[in-house]
């Protein structure tokens, strides 16, 4: 594990329980996104990459089959506590421990924002590899161009992570380079992107 990924893991281990208590809702259009990815996955399992304490995995599992994955063992501990009937694994989205074409969908919900910018193409390549033909990638992210260093969070607990904002066109360029096709929605929130394999 690189130093940057180790810092992400350690930071979210520190705040895992506090995070789960505080982050209980997503954006108002979240359910629309999860309904869409479940529909496009067409009954195949969905990988929640960067699942945190499992809130999003639980919502996806209500709509079909879902597996949660997170870099932080502490987050996975909370996810398993709160969702004992679901499958969760510790792992990195830059090196997914799943066979090729394992999933009908991948959801990365405000989780690529901590990856160093030069590493994000590796995650896109892994998402593409584990998706079955016709699979879908749903992304949520912070819009912008700046990067900020987060040293405290979720109950003023210490953290050491970077938060990278992205312009939609920047992520679209990386996704297309990895082999994805943008999925056009009539009304797409700026901080949500959908791609098809």
Largest beta sheet: strand ordering: 3-2-1-4-5-9-8
Order of helices and strands: HHEHEHEEHEEEHEE
CATH architecture: 3-Layer(aba) Sandwich
First CA to last CA: what distance? 28 Å
Number of helices: 6
**Mind summarizing the main beta sheet?**
7 strands, mixed
Extract low-pLDDT stretches: none
Total domains: 1
Give the CATH H-level superfamily: Vaccinia Virus protein VP39
CATH fold-level label: Rossmann fold
What percentage of the residues does DSSP assign to strands (E)? 25-35%
The share of residues in helices is: 25-40%
Can you count the beta strands? 9
Shape by Cα distribution: globular
Mean pLDDT: 94
What is the rounded Rg?
15 Å
Structure classification: alpha/beta
CATH structural class: Alpha Beta
Structure report:
- The chain is an alpha/beta fold and 197 residues long.
- The protein has a single domain (3-23, 30-196), classed as Vaccinia Virus protein VP39 (Rossmann fold, 3-Layer(aba) Sandwich), CATH 3.40.50.150.
- The chain has 6 helices and 9 strands.
- The strands form 2 sheets. The chain has a 7-stranded mixed sheet with strand order 3-2-1-4-5-9-8, with helices on both faces. The protein has a two-stranded antiparallel sheet with strand order 6-7.
- Helix 1 packs parallel to helix 4 (73-82).
- The model has no long low-confidence stretch (mean pLDDT 94).
């Amino acid at each position: 594990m690189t130093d940057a990924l180790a810092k992400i893991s350690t930071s979210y281990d520190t705040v895992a329980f506090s995070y789960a208590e505080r982050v209980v809702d997503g954006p108002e259009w979240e359910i629309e996104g999860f309904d869409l990815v479940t529909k496009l996955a067409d009954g195949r399992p969905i990988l929640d990459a960067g699942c945190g304490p499992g809130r999003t995995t639980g919502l996806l599992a209500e709509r079909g089959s879902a597996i949660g994955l997170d870099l932080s063992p502490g987050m996975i501990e909370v996810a398993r506590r709160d969702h004992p009937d679901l499958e969760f694994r510790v792992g990195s989205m830059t090196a997914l421990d799943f066979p090729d074409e394992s999933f009908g969908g991948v959801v990365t919900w405000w989780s690529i924002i901590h990856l160093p910018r030069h590493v994000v193409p590796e995650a896109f390549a892994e998402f593409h590899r584990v998706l079955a033909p016709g699979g879908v990638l749903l992304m949520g992210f912070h819009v912008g161009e700046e990067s900020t260093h987060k040293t405290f969070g979720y109950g003023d607990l210490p953290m050491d992570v970077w938060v990278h904002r992205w312009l939609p066109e920047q992520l679209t360029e990386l996704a297309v380079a990895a082999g994805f096709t943008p999925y056009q929605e009539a009304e797409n929130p700026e901080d949500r992107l959908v791609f098809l394999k």
